Each structure stands twice: as C-alpha cells, then as structure tokens.
Amino acid sequence: MRKRMQLVNSLVVGFAVLHLSTSAQATEAAHVHGLMHLDIAIDKELLTLQLASPLDSLLGFERRPRTAAERQAADALLKQMADAATLFKPDAAAQCVPTKVSIESAALQSTSQAEGRNGNKESEHADLEASYEFNCAYPDKLTAVEIGLFVAFKRLQKIEVQVAGAKLQSKQTLQRPNKVVKLLR
Fold first, then answer.
1. Residue ranges of domains in the chain
2. What distance in Å separates the CA atoms of residue 94 and residue 89, rounded to the nearest whole number?
C-alpha cells in the first residue's frame, strides 16, 4: 500500500511539473508580433470578450514610452482600446450595449505602479490585456461579432479567436481583411 501511495504521489507531482512546463512554453510562444488572442464567451445576455496582444502589434514598441511622441501614442492606444463599441460590433438585432472595459499593461502603467509590480525592471516583451462586457437584450439573435481591431491597428495581422457558450465552442482565425467572428448556434 505504501509503494502504491508513493507511485500515486510521483504521478501527481510529474503531471504538475509537466503542466507547469507546458504552460510556461505556451506563454512564451504566445508572444508573437502581429498576432492577437481573443476569447469570446456568451452566457445568457452577457457577451464577454478578452484579448491579449504584444504591445508591438498595437503600438509599435514594447516598453515604457520614453518620448513625448511615444507617450502621446500610448495615450491614444488606451483611448482606442477603451472604445468597446468601435472595436466590437455584435449583431444589431441582439441590441448589445457595452457595460464594462478593463485594460492592463505593465508598460503603460504609471512609473510607481510598474516599479512596485516589476521591481523597477523593464520587460523585453510587453503585452496588453483587455476585457469587455456587453449586455444583450436579445442574445438569441447574436450570431456574429464584427471585429474592428484590424482597422484600428495596422500592425495587427492575425487574430486567433476562441468562442464558448452554453451550446457552442469554436476556434477561428481571422486574417486581414476578414473581420467577422461567426457565433455558430
């Protein structure tokens, strides 16, 4: 019995190490310039979109802005990213209204916030993550979302999309000029 428990413990530890190693490799591989990851979830009347992208794909550089022009570009980026209704257009018949936007990027935080989080060390590969929520009056009429990210960000070339809902799951890849994610039902 004791040997069996040791074997079970060894397997559990082995799977945990394998999972952590695979997760670390996936995270490193996920940082590809020109590529964005977008997850779309539909839960009753709530439409949630979460994206992750290298800052280079959106801004042209991946570090804290150093010049007045770079600060201006970063401010413009944050303003664009906050405009959920322009970046994402669900079917008009579903009558979806943006209700919440959250944007995070260590490189675009104020200096004191970033120093506290990164120990005053600047990363070589900075990302931006954002989350958007829409409330939809008629979620049953939600069959597609038009993505305005290619129009807003010229450096962006490809969007890997995963869609999940009560009755659907799909994976799609958008490349210029394709900008519509179909929500199969």
1. 1-30, 33-182
2. 10
Q: From residue 151, how far is each of 36, 80, 164, 177, 179 by CA, in Å?
A: 14, 11, 25, 9, 9
- The kind and range of the H/E element at 165 are strand 158-165
At CB < 8 A and 24+ separation, what contacts does 83-87 make? Answer: 84/132, 84/134, 86/148, 86/152, 87/132, 87/147, 87/148, 87/149, 87/152
DSSP3 helix / strand / coil % (the chain, rounded to 5):
40, 35, 25
Which residues fall within 8 angstroms of residue 77, CB to CB, at 6 or more apart?
Answer: 58, 59, 108, 128
User: Is 135 within 8 Å of 108 (Cβ atoms)?
Assistant: no
CA atoms within 13 A on the CB side of 66: 4
Q: What is the mean pLDDT of each run of 10 residues along the chain (185 residues)?
A: 38 32 41 88 96 94 92 94 97 98 88 42 76 97 96 95 90 94 81
Numbers of helices and strands, H then E, in the chain? 6, 9
CA distance 51 to 67: 27
Q: What would the pLDDT profile of 102-134 be if each residue is shown by its tens digit?
A: 999 989 875 434 444 444 445 567 899 999 999
What pTM, to 2 d.p., does this model score? Answer: 0.76
For 115, half-sphere exposure in the C-beta direction (CA atoms, 13 angstrom radius) is 4
